[in-house]
Write a structure and sequence with these properties.
Calcium-transporting ATPase, cytoplasmic transduction domain A, alpha+beta, Calcium-transporting ATPase, cytoplasmic domain N, single chain, seven-stranded mixed sheet
């Protein structure tokens, strides 16, 4: 029986059934106009909407009465059910169906959000490596990832995903750690360095010893954090639920008391007074206040390139007092670009230096090498063919350009060629290091020619956006996996004083939990897979919709379609205005109801005229909500 009831409710709550309910409401409006006559109540098509959308709400109200504790037994579902019953009692079948239909649409949107979150989790799980190459006395064998044990020696070839956490024993490489830290550039690794599960070996072959395997590995911990954060999200008591918890008993109590007073006064119409009072206290306007305001706000946000997935997220955003930013791909574009070309040789100008470096890097697959080549082509620099090319993972490249040896990379590759750096070169490198830039030294076979610096590029609107948040009383802070110097440099550019750098996903989650335990309401803004647990844990998660990973977008409550981070202050103000509109509409509807109660007690209003009063209140609430759609918040 229980299973059958569940199946029936699922069908009633489905999208096709809800569409049928909406069509029935349209028919309820149009048929009297077409027939030029009022339909009998029992033939009103709106009954279909009441059955389809109203029954699930009534069942939910009953469930909450049975299962919830204390005042939470009285919820917005019960409020809506009372409103439907009161509307039916006065013969306003359309109003009853309309209330149920609007609530059903809201439920469908919430369910879709939950389903999308589950989809993002499945994508994250799909990143888990399924096998690893174990090195044995007899050679190499491929084994399932779950069979890898602590102490096993694994060989990771270029392009392969590292299956478990471990320490490099032999070899040098560069590892793409963006899945864990969000860093835009591969990190150079050599013997003794740690590597993480789920990260990608980009260039050199390495042998590593397994240190953390199975559920203890970094990627599995990341997946587990997203699952746990999803489960920890406590259901927020929505504004309508808070009002419903005392409004329903007050309405019923007033109707009973008024009827009793009239009865003891000898008034023969005491039942009529009680029914009229219940009708005028019918919470149609209150029920409509939240969904109409939320729909108008979500519609406006969509026009501005902001996708808000639920009304709950919108209400929460209005209370946010702290915004935590990821750096790479959020405050910055997440792509390295050449920022400086400095010649340190009298016979080599900047154009010649760039031409030599870009020519040498033409065959490089490293993001830095590609960025140098792209910059040279953009500047119209002529590139030369190369005779030889070699790449040393984690160090740089060497090539022969027009018969001349050219070396591009760090100090290690230069020292291997017998080239040392003078004081001026060290000064230039120190300046770039303090600015959070990556330096590529360029030399021939005998001397240093110059330095090319590359940097992530700050979004031009980031600084103004942070200033606007601070002006609105919202604290901004930085949570990033990048190194401290780079993080501090970019934080200084945008005006963020609190910097948390070199964070793994669990560190970001821990910092957000600390802030929320201290009474802060936190909005996390990120774009990478590594941000997914933090986006889930925060009061509100906002993802970069274009450049952000699918997993981050699915984990977030809100997505910025055009990656326009300047929309964050707009989003905050829109959310705050929406909450104020909801509260104002509810208060206004209560004032109208209060006046109607007095008039009902004085028997000035009858059930029929009382219905007109509460319908007028509903129309007024809808009009107030509609004003949000075109309101300016910039």
């Amino acid at each position: 029986m229980k299973h059958l009831l569940h199946e029936i409710l699922e069908k009633l709550e489905s999208i096709p059934a809800t569409v049928i309910g909406g069509i029935s409401l349209v028919a309820s409006l149009l048929l009297p106009l077409i027939l030029q006559a009022e339909l009998p109540i029992y033939l009103d098509p709106a009954w279909i909407a009441i059955v389809i959308s109203g029954i699930p709400l009534a069942v939910l109200a009953i469930k909450r009465i049975i299962k919830n504790k204390g005042i939470s037994k009285i919820s917005s579902a019960l409020l809506i059910t009372v409103g439907m019953i009161a509307s039916v009692a006065i013969g306003d079948i359309f109003a009853a169906g309309e209330i149920a239909f609007i609530m059903a649409i809201g439920e469908i949107l919430e369910d879709k959000t939950t389903a999308r979150a589950r989809k993002g989790l499945k994508q994250l799980i799909s990143l888990s490596p399924v096998q690893g190459r174990k090195v044995t006395a007899d050679g190499e064998i491929m084994i399932p990832a779950e069979d890898i044990c602590v102490g096993d020696v694994l060989r990771i070839l270029p392009g392969e995903t590292i299956p478990v956490d471990g320490v490099i024993l032999r070899g040098e490489t560069s590892v793409d750690q963006s899945v864990m830290t969000g860093e835009s550039l591969p990190v150079d690794k050599e013997a003794g360095d740690s590597v993480y599960s789920g990260t990608v070996n980009r260039f050199g072959a390495i042998d590593m010893e397994a240190v953390k395997v199975g559920e203890d590995s970094s990627l599995q911990r990341l997946i587990r954090m997203v699952e746990e954060a999803d489960g920890k999200v406590a259901p927020t008591q929505r504004i309508a639920d808070k009002w419903a918890s005392w409004l329903v008993p007050v309405a019923l109590l007033l109707a009973i008391i008024s009827g009793a007073i009239k009865y003891f006064m000898g008034d023969p119409d005491f039942l009529l007074v009680a029914v009229t009072m219940l009708v005028v206290f019918c919470p149609c306007a209150l029920v409509l206040a939240t969904p109409t305001a939320v729909m108008a706000a979500i519609g406006q946000a969509t026009k501005h390139g902001v996708i808000i997935k639920s009304g709950e997220a919108l209400e929460k955003m209005g209370k946010v007092d702290t915004v935590a930013f990821d750096k790479t791909g959020t405050l910055t574009y997440g792509k390295p670009q050449v920022s400086d070309v400095v010649s340190l040789s009298e016979d080599t100008d900047e154009a010649s230096l760039l031409s030599l470096a870009a020519s040498a890097e033409r065959r490089s697959e490293h993001p830095l090498g590609k960025a140098i080549v792209a910059y040279a082509k953009e500047k119209g620099v002529v590139l030369s063919d190369i005779d030889t090319f070699s790449m040393t993972a984690g160090k740089g490249v060497s090539a022969t350009v027009n018969g001349r040896g050219v070396h591009c990379g760090n100090e290690i590759i230069l020292s291997g060629c017998g080239i040392s750096l003078d004081d001026r070169a060290h000064q230039v490198l120190d300046v770039f290091r303090k600015q959070g830039k990556v330096s590529i030294a360029v030399a021939d076979d005998t001397r240093l020619l110059g330095v090319i610096a590359l940097s992530d590029t700050l979004r031009p609107t980031s600084a103004d956006m942070v200033a606007r948040l601070e002006k609105d009383g919202v604290k901004a802070l930085l949570l990033t996996g990048d190194n401290r110097q780079t993080a501090a440099y970019f934080a200084g550019l945008v005006g963020i004083s609190e910097v948390n750098a070199e964070l793994l996903p669990e560190d970001k989650v821990r910092r957000i939990e600390e802030l929320e335990q201290a009474g802060r309401s936190v909005c996390m803004i990120g774009d990478g897979i590594n941000d997914a647990p933090a986006l889930k844990t925060a009061t509100v998660g906002v993802a970069m919709g274009t450049m952000g990973s699918d997993i981050a977008v699915e984990a977030a409550d809100i997505a910025l379609v055009g990656d326009d981070i300047s929309k964050i202050p707009y989003l905050k103000r829109l959310s705050r205005a929406t909450v104020k509109t909801i509260k104002f509409s509810i208060s206004l509807s209560l004032l109208i109801n209060l006046a109607a109660i007095v008039l009902s007690f004085l028997e000035i209003l009858t059930p029929t005229t009382g219905a007109l009063v509460h319908n007028a209140g509903s129309v007024l609430v809808v009009l107030i909500a509609a004003l949000l759609y075109d309101r300016k918040f910039d």
